[in-house]
Amino acid sequence: MTWPQFDLNDAPTPLDVATWVGLGRLVPDDVPMWAAQWLIAGYDGESLAMLAGLGPRDTDEIHELLPSALTDCGVTVPDSETAAARVSFDRLARMYRDGRAGPRWVVDKVCELLENARFADGVRAQPFAQLCQHSAEPDGRSAAELAAAVEQACRDQLDRGRARPRRVRPGPSGIRTWRR
Questions:
Q1: pLDDT in tens, 73-111
Q2: Is this structure's pTM higher than 0.70?
Q3: Burial 76-88 (b: 16+ CB within 10 A, else e)
Q4: DSSP state of 149
Q5: Number of H helices and number of E strands within the chain?
Q6: How many CB atoms lie under 10 A from the CB of residue 132?
Q7: For position 87, what pLDDT does the model report?
């Protein structure tokens, strides 16, 4: 008997799942299988292993274990709809930049996320949210103009000034420090 082949790239990342939880869009049925795939991919932790052992109908246990399992993976659920939308928009921008999504699909997904967030001010303030002005059927814009608008929005979304901690070399004491 041959085992079915699966690609670890088919499973969403822990960051994707945390984003869906933050947006209130997670359907828990596949979470235990994803947890098992994350274990295979090298993530580790007691909660993650317990989550991987659950079945799709164990929804209460899935919801109970998921936050700590995501912590095992080094990810936390964004604490606001704005943060979750930011992570989603960043992912869409990277998908477009990497050639894994076309401009029309990106615009449609951005507008879907914005609508699901009920057009919250913090979500609308994200650079990528401006793409929804291109959501209607083409109004005289060429495909090249749409692609240029998406390209610019990707740059704005990914390059906006955000302070991220960066690791620096060990100091005299040998302790690694973090700087903003």
A1: 998 887 677 778 888 898 899 999 999 999 999 999 999
A2: no
A3: ebbeebbbbbbbb
A4: H
A5: 8, 2
A6: 18
A7: 84
CA 123 – CA 117 distance, rounded (Å):
7
Per-residue confidence band for 140, with pLDDT thresholds at 50, 70 and 90: low
- Residue 24 · residue 84 · CB < 8 Å: no
The 3-state DSSP class for residue 178 equals: strand
**Hey, what long-range contacts does 7-11 have (CB within 8 A, 24 or more apart)?**
8/37, 8/40, 8/41, 10/37, 11/37, 11/38, 11/41
- Mean pLDDT over residues 55-69, rounded? 95
Residue 178 has pLDDT above 80, yes or no: no
What amino acid is encoded at 51 in this protein?
L
Name beta bridge partners: 167. 178
> Is residue 93 a contact partner of residue 101, using CB atoms and an 8 Å limit?
no
Tokens at residue 123, please? 């979500």
Token readout for 53 is 């052992």
C-alpha distance across the termini of the chain, in Å: 54
User: ∠ CA(10), CA(12), CA(13), 5° rounding?
Assistant: 125
